């Protein structure tokens, strides 16, 4: 009798979480990133509890290979610095405007020990991604424990979530084009935003952009080329970068463009150690 009950509780008999259906998560095509929506954001990155997004990475008895941390967490309020746990299990990749999460799902098995976060403005879409990830974790455990999705306005709140130099990859895949001149302020790549991205990326970190809108591609390249802390990478350099090779087809938007044989423009930048102008100046 006990055996029968125990058997009934075995994971193989547990009902698997099903993949969500997109049509159940219909969302408005666009949201205005400059709206004053009230997002509950941490005042400081160290105030945020990441364990609810990546439980496998923060649990002491998690299996090997999930990047779980074994150290006793320190209290940052006592030390004034991030704990060893926070340092090591920090998010390193951020996919800004992740849409339905295709990039995260492709990257997860390629970098199994790296925490990655999708940031999405639309509530239904971010809910879909969260359900998608939970279903993948259920069906392919312990894979996909390194990806998560957060609903937030990344244009306003990135610095609430990440510390200086914390990120090693920042993705902007098929961002909303905001065609009219009056709405260019809403574009996610701009001079002001690039200053934030340079702050959050570690030296040597990478910023990835791709679009099928020629005007936006030109705009993103102009703004990024002009930034003294970013250097555009050549196609030869990118040929060996697995993430760069995923940009055009990993996401739902990219697949749509590919189905329609649309052209894309990819621009990828390395975050430099020091600004270009300073590097070229002779030492005093
Ligand atoms: C055209 S879709 C591309 C989605 C995805 N990157 C892809 O390639 O399939 C742009 C996405 O960015 C999201 N987005 C726009 N502004 C945002 C912001 N400020 N913060 C977070 N997400 C944003 C939109 O809701 C939308 O899902």
Automatic annotation (TrEMBL):
Superkingdom field: Eukaryota
Active site per database record: 176
EC number, as in UniProt: 2.1.1.33
Compositional bias (Polar residues): 78-88
Pfam family membership, one: Methyltransf_4
SUPFAM superfamilies: S-adenosyl-L-methionine-dependent methyltransferases
Catalytic activity line of the entry: guanosine(46) in tRNA + S-adenosyl-L-methionine = N(7)-methylguanosine(46) in tRNA + S-adenosyl-L-homocysteine
Bias (Basic residues) ranges: 19-29
Binding, S-adenosyl-L-methionine: 97, 120-121, 153-154, 173, 251-253
Subcellular locations according to the entry: Nucleus
Start and end residues of each stretch annotated as Disordered: 1-45, 59-88
Protein's UniProt keywords contain Magnesium: no
Major localization listed first in the record, in broad terms: nucleus
Record's keyword terms, sorted: Methyltransferase, Nucleus, RNA-binding, S-adenosyl-L-methionine, Transferase, tRNA processing, tRNA-binding
Functional pathway: tRNA modification; N(7)-methylguanine-tRNA biosynthesis
Keyword tRNA processing annotated: yes
Main function: Catalyzes the formation of N(7)-methylguanine at position 46 (m7G46) in tRNA.
Protein family membership: Belongs to the class I-like SAM-binding methyltransferase superfamily. TrmB family.
Name of the protein: tRNA (guanine-N(7)-)-methyltransferase
Organism from which the protein derives: Coccomyxa viridis
Gene: g12108
């Amino acid at each position: 009798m006990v055996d029968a009950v125990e058997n009934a509780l075995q994971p193989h008999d547990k009902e698997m979480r099903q993949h969500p259906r997109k049509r159940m998560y219909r969302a408005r095509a666009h949201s205005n990133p400059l709206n004053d929506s009230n997002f509950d954001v941490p005042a400081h990155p160290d105030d945020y509890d990441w364990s609810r997004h990546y439980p496998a990475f923060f649990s002491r008895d998690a299996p090997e290979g999930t990047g779980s941390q074994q150290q006793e967490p320190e209290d940052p309020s006592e030390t004034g610095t991030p704990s060893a746990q926070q340092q090591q299990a920090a998010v390193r990749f951020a996919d800004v405007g992740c849409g339905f999460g295709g990039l995260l799902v492709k990257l997860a098995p390629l970098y199994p020990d790296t925490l990655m976060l999708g940031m999405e403005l639309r509530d239904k879409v971010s809910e879909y991604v969260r359900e998608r990830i939970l279903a993948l974790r259920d069906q392919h455990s312990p894979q996909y424990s390194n990806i998560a999705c957060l609903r937030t306005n990344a244009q306003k709140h990135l610095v609430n979530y990440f510390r200086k130099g914390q990120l090693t990859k920042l993705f902007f895949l098929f961002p909303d084009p905001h065609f009219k001149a009056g709405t260019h302020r809403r574009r996610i790549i701009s001079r002001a935003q690039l200053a934030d991205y340079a702050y959050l990326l570690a030296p040597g970190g990478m910023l990835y952009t791709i679009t099928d809108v020629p005007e936006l591609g030109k705009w993103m390249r102009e703004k990024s080329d002009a930034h003294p802390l970013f250097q555009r990478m050549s196609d030869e350099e990118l040929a060996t970068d697995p993430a760069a090779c995923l940009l055009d087809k990993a996401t739902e938007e990219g697949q749509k463009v590919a189905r329609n044989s649309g052209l894309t423009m990819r621009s990828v930048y390395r975050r430099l150690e020091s600004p270009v102008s300073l590097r070229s100046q002779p030492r005093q």
